[in-house]
Amino acid sequence: MKLVTAESTTPAHKRNPGYPLDLDWVERVRMNRSALERRAGTIGARRTVKKDHQLAWLLKAITMIDLTTLNSDDTPGRVERLCAKARHPVRQDILDQLGMSGRRILPGAVCVYHSFVDTAVRALEGTGIPVAAVSTGFPHGLAPVETKIAEIEASVKDGAKEIDIVIERGMVLRGDWQALYDQVKAFRKACGDAHIKTILGTGELATQTNVAKASLVCMLAGADFIKTSTGKEKVNANLVTSLTMIRMIRWFAEETGIEIGYKPAGGIATAVDALKYMALMKEELGTNWLQPHLFRFGASSLLTDIERQLEHGLTGHYAADYRQPMV
Ligand SMILES: O=C[C@H](O)COP(=O)(O)O
After folding, report:
1. pTM for this one?
2. Band of the pLDDT at 6, cuts 50, 70, 90?
3. Does 165 map to a domain?
């Protein structure tokens, strides 16, 4: 399996230019929750990833993690430790045993609050790992629009290459697609060359049809990625919602030829979970989407479990937790 690292990300990928808001298209969108649940229940039941390939898939998963710390007690020291982990996500002895010693395996990005963007940019200098900033009044998204735009601009100025904005869930619940479109379009403009991920807060959108419509409106407004959750909602990423969102990505690609990225986030903490999401992407969108410019996990603890599973796959036993410290 060809591993994609930060050195080779974002190949000749056509960025979403944004499209006019097509309300007829939005109105046509319908999702059937029970059909989605039935389909989601089949993921992982069949062996999409053969046992022999699992370690390669787990290494690949690492290249698609947005290594995240989003705690109210974050400090520059914690962010620096996270960045040190990002520089060396897998212990050297594990890489050696996997025959991967010469390869650079790095996470997709390091994701932090705005206050820590400059710290992370400095700590990651020379690695090519981008810094992602959560923005626009994360996690609720309820600040005045001018404040949100200023926050995006400040993070871009400090060196963030990716901006994870949150949408106002109320716009979706009211069906005010025009307001949602206008706001996301303004955010995209403020991002400039930085890529924009739009967090829907899916656990608060009431129906799968709402999730699907919100996904479409964000993509029409110019989103580079659609992302499920902030990690702070009661219900975060899951396979049913993922199915809804990636089917909208597929539909959008069929209509426009533009490939939008997908980022499930919140509560994805085990290698088994990661493999299920990767299987879902492969089965619904194809292996092309399993690259860091089209797929990310938003996760704070996933890497720890992946490292444990890599070691277990090699040695048959688990390492003590202290051998894989995070931050
Ligand atoms: O966007 C990332 C999430 O906030 C991470 O959530 P987590 O801490 O449940 O992995």
Report:
1. 0.94
2. very low
3. yes
